[in-house]
Design a protein that fits this description.
By secondary structure, this protein is α+β, with helices and mostly antiparallel strands. Helix 2 packs antiparallel against helix 4.
Length: about 210
């Protein structure tokens, strides 16, 4: 073997190892596990219960129909939401044969993806599943080619600690208890290389309507 061929093999070997290490690092921080496609007959009943139990945290008002969202895979039934009909991604996380949580997200346009809902069943909370679902939804949206992902939540939602821990930054508030976040792909990918740590936030103490 001449020196030229030997050097080429060494360079190729180092390149392969670099790619392998990068891949292992990336996938070690990406959500893994039973996040699967929503099936109406199997999942709708349990997801609807989560919707109604956590209405205050999931919806900004009363003019929403969870049934319509699931049946038509649309963000809502308003006229401006109809162009996304059939395009809402609904994924469920299952554990022990049960719905542990779900997420919905969609590509709003060529430059923005939206994470609409993240919800975890009370039985499976405090296990990192909300973080897992959020990572999954954001990752899928970036794979669709959008440069930024947005979401809306309440100012007193404990999930803010997750969003800001992942690198989401606040873009505004509506004065009625809602706030808006965004994240770009570079920030998201950089965050995946680190151990996730929820952001410490002093949440406002606001009255929560009775269920």
């Amino acid at each position: 073997m001449n020196l030229k061929n030997r050097s080429l093999k060494i360079i190729l070997g180092i390149s392969f190892l670099a790619v392998l290490v990068a891949g292992v690092t990336y996938y070690s921080f990406m959500p893994r596990g039973p996040i699967v496609e929503f099936q109406y007959d199997r999942d709708a009943k349990d997801i609807l219960k989560l919707f109604y139990d956590d209405w205050y945290w999931l919806f900004p008002g009363d003019d929403y129909s969870p049934e319509y969202i699931l049946e038509h895979r649309a963000p809502g039934k308003e006229w401006y939401q109809q162009k996304y009909k059939g395009k809402l991604n609904i994924k469920v996380l299952r554990k022990k044969g049960k719905i542990a949580g779900f997420t919905t997200y969609y590509k709003k346009n060529y430059y923005e993806g939206v994470v609409q809902f993240i919800s975890v069943s009370p039985e499976f909370r405090r296990q990192g599943l909300a973080t897992k679902l959020t990572k999954y939804a954001v990752d899928q949206l970036f794979k669709m080619g959008v440069p930024k992902v947005t979401l809306t939540t309440r100012v007193n939602n404990p999930a803010r600690k997750i969003y800001e821990g992942l690198g989401f930054t606040e873009t505004g508030r509506d004065g009625q208890g809602l706030m808006f976040y965004k994240i770009d792909e570079k920030t998201f990918r950089k965050g995946l290389k680190k151990k996730f740590v929820p952001k410490k936030i002093d949440l406002p103490d606001l009255p929560i309507p009775a269920k």
